[in-house]
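Cross-posted from the bioinformatics board.
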Amino acid sequence: MNIWESIRTAWQSIFANRMRSLLTMLGIVIGVCAVVLLVALGQGFQTSMKTTFENMGASALYISSSTDKAVKSVRELTLEDAEALADPKVAPSIAAVSPTLSQSVNASYGNNSVTVQCMGVMPEITKIRNYTLEVGRFISEQDIITRQNVVVLGYQTALDLFGSESPLGKSLRAEGNKFQVIGTIQKMGGFAGDSYILMPLTTMQSKIVGGNNVQQIAVKAISPDKVDSAIAEITSVIRARHYIMPGGTDDFAIRDMREIMNSMQQSLATFSLFLSSVGAISLIVGSIGIMNIMLVSVSERTREIGIRKAIGAKRHDILLQFLIESSALSFTGGSIGLLIGVGGTLLVGDVPFFGSPGTSIQPQISPTIVILALAVSIGTGLISGTYPATRAARLDPIECLRHE
Amino acid sequence: MLELENITKIYDMGKVKVTALDNVSFRCEKGEMVSIMGPSGSGKSTMMNVLGCLDRPTSGSYRLEGRNVSSLKDNDLAVIRNNKLGFVFQSYNLLPKLSAVANVELPLIYNGGHNRRQHALEALESVGISNRAHHHPSEMSGGEQQRVAIARALINNPLIILADEPTGNLDTASSRTIISLLVEQSKKGITVIVVTHEEDIAAYTQRTIYLRDGKIVEERKR
């Protein structure tokens, strides 16, 4: 029997039982949808990670105060700690040091207002992180000394606050103060995204946070293979400055980029596992549903099978007919799932990475996803159709013709 | 042309063995029209199933055009049913979701025939029902459905038409139309075998064989 003929017959049968077919497909729809989202997010994550690595560099280290409860008294990190690390005689493996502060602030210009991460930085930060100016200038040594009310805006924040206007020289309002925009940074992407405000560390200390402390010290090793010796130098310098006895626990933590990436990747793996479980379970449930409906269909159409056999249908004609029918059912469900998955992905756009603001993954739809989803759905149809179709093909034509 | 020789069919029902056909021999020539009569349980249906290549005899041989078909495999039997045989059933057995012409086309689908639609329309024409070609079985009377079934049986130019109580569900007028159609086919050279309960239907045939307990007990020529 002609394949096209079988496909047409299958379609007629699916359409004749619209409601039943739709309900049967639901499992496959959800399963394929989950698979699409999984792959889209996975690919988006890979891209974000690559960009982030490029922006931050593999030789970057971040020192912050310890959050370990076992440490009794924690001395906060200070500007002086950072200055000590910047001395090449004390720490020869360190190329650049930039203490930073960061806090979420409400910034506004005219009627536009955004809540955005504000970072207090030193000019050295550009040696550690890959900020490329779009227009204007970056924060200078002079700005630090004189505690100037100046800011540099991330690409997205500039867009959110100023739209098509040029932000250069204009003043925005944040936490009760006015800050003049001196520059904007090009679009970077990655997990950190492009929503942020940079200002001189000293300005941030006096106008926004208060006090002399810093939250984090960003450090760059002179080369990626000197990361380990840089960690050793940082440890000895800070321990000495914080009066920690030999054998005492560090009251600070050093994280390198690899570690941060690893932990992010681990969270993604957990998330992927969750999504693939949902996908797998839906596909299994869906295929059981299809198998069930196909068995119903075979028994409903026993007489038809008998007639077809009497007029010359061979076993494989009947087998093919039911296999094609189950695949068509599953394929249709898979296509609907694919459309919903792709549509949903495009509609939602950026997904915040585990709810933390300012971080994002841009899910990506590739031809691989489309092929994978359709292959999975046809495969499911074939697997779940095999048993009912085999049963139909083996039926005895005489018994079938007697069947009411 | 068609020859059954010492055909025995035994159904093994576990504890009991039922002999449905007991050493039956029977032959039939091209263009002959034969009726089979007998009480229920006499083996008529089993004989039709064997003749129709839907079932294999337990022993004995069935020769069709000189070829022994009694021990062929399922797929080979399917090919014979498709090419050499045409079935007409008491309850018509048309597929309800297909139009008359699509039903008539079905046997051609299984042998990859070309110009299927055209052939099917011609077959409907030859049984005088081309005006109903695009109607579904549920929109037709019993007599009309049976004519569609005969068109389907004729589509592959069969050697034999096997009609199992073809008029069993029809009124007298329709019965006469159907049996005349079958007589017409036998005159064209197709062998027609009819199972019936009705003497006046059997009266149309050249020869009647009577079955009882799986044996041919009487044979009457007209």
